[in-house]
Amino acid sequence: MNSLKKFSKVVALAAVVGLLGTVAVGCGSAPKQDGAKPAADAGVKGSIQVKGSDTIVNLSQAMAEEFMKKNKDASIAVTGGGSGTGIKALINGTTDLANASREMKAEEKAQVKEKTQKDAKEIIIANDGIGFIVNKDNPVKELTMAQLADIYTGKVSNWKELGGNDEKIVVYARETSSGTHVFVKEHVMKDKEYRSDALLQNSNAAIVKEVEGNKGAIGYVGLGYLKDSIKTLGVKKDANAAAVMPSEATVKDKSYPVARPLFVYAAGEPQGAAKAFVDFMLSSEGQAIVKKMDFVPVK
Amino acid sequence: MSPNGENTAITNEIIMCKESLSKSASKKRRIWDITEKMTEGLLFLSAFIGVVTIILIFLFLFKEAIPLMADPAANTLTSKNWYPISNPPVFGLLPLIAGSIIVTFGAIVISVPLGVGAAIYLAMVASPVVRETLKPAIEVLAGIPSVVVGFFGLAVLAPLIKDIFNLPTGLTALTGAITLALMALPTITSISEDAISSVPRRYMEASLSLGATRWQAIKTVIVPAALSGITAAIMLGIGRAIGETMTVLMVTGNAGIIPDTFLVPVRTMTATIAAEMGEVARGSDHYYALFVVGAVLFLMTFVINLVADIVSRRMKEVE
């Protein structure tokens, strides 16, 4: 009993200290007003809003942080919400830049023109490619887009239907929070639902690890994760096309079908801080961040 | 109070004593009073902060969950699929609740017999030396970070389960249940052991002198007497298991289906929140739906704690 008393005392004390700490930190972490700081470096001034694609939000955030480190007086607010949300905000004038993982539709461009009297300006900041991977022991080498869609929607559930062994297909996908999940859903599956028993993993590395150890597995990962311990599938546009392996080169020349450019849109030519930020994204520093986040640079 | 050395008359001494007493006492007394008040205030503040924090968390959760109710998407809460980013989105909570329940249930089925058994052994059977080495060892288990347990589940347990049951994948509810049982075990063992050890010795002695064997005494007297503590331990274990996030995120496969056996991947409520909260757009339906998941989870753990409280009070009344 004695030990329990001691234990509970310690726990109680810890809890109190923890709570006090939380409260103190909570009060202390009010936004710092560093308005009094002299701007020694003649950096970019002004604050801009960037809104849109969830695929790009992390990349955009990383770039914004780097940009703000260099330009102390610039503030960039990045929010997600999806490409459609970003484009809508651009039309309504509530954001300076819209991230989009798809091209703007014609009617959206018309709306931008109508509302802001300016043409929508399209900037490609990166390319994105997804490789499909299977276990090394799987004899299947290549699949068509339609076959991939059938696997992921659950229409096909055994490898022998695709020329493989008599083995159940175990489908690995990224978590719904991942832009890759959305990209595959829109681009490969034509917006049909994933099969409900698809195993959702929260990182590329987890998918690679699972596919390594599972004969029936199929998964998809960003280009940076394709390695020799797993087998990367060639993808055909349709049954008659040649299979193309994913690589930086095939993504750039658009011959690999599961790839897309990532866009930033502005209403008219970006001005001031927005222009500086766009230039930063296209600079070698910005493109290095693109590479770091496992996208394909445009330059 | 020191005795006075140079006294001749008794009355003199008494007066001097009284003086020194009142002087020193009043000074000390005042300091005591102040510390008393300060301690009281501090303790009250601690309790107050705790209670207020809980209430604020509660309010915040429900405030963020309510906007979904005003939306047509709320009608999908009882459906069997969790497709939060589809068009239109489907926020079916059933697979998530089922996933959490099956994993927790499995963990409890595994860890309660083991935990209570170990507690009985430690408290009643083991020699003092064994007890003093084993108990700290079991309590160290409680300190293993959940990521490490999750990694163990991913690297060791999952392939094993895949091979034993010949499954397409080793990331299943069973894998989750076993890893969670590992985590709930130390809690259950150590608190149950305290409860059993605190049963008065004379109960045991009385039963033995009436001719009961040790096992009969433990089974019919000691364990029932310690039942309130054991129940509390079990409830704490359930709480630990149902609220665990990192481990289940790593080992259950996170497929949003309503499980029919322990050998399929499941998606728990905690894992869903952890996996999706990072990317979700603030103020979207999906964001509010995650808070609904959190609120449901909060209610579940709240009910579990309430039941534990009532049960242990009942037991005390019986005693």
From TrEMBL, chain A:
Single biological process term from Gene Ontology: phosphate ion transport
Membrane topology: Lipid-anchor
Protein name per its UniProtKB record: Phosphate-binding protein
Function: Part of the ABC transporter complex PstSACB involved in phosphate import. Involved in the system for phosphate transport across the cytoplasmic membrane.
Domain PBP: 38-285
Coiled coil: none
Alphabetical list of Pfam families matching this protein: PBP_like_2
Record's keyword annotation contains Membrane: yes
GO CC annotation terms, alphabetical: plasma membrane
Gene3D superfamilies: Periplasmic binding protein-like II
Signal peptide: 1-26
Gene name of the encoded protein: pstS
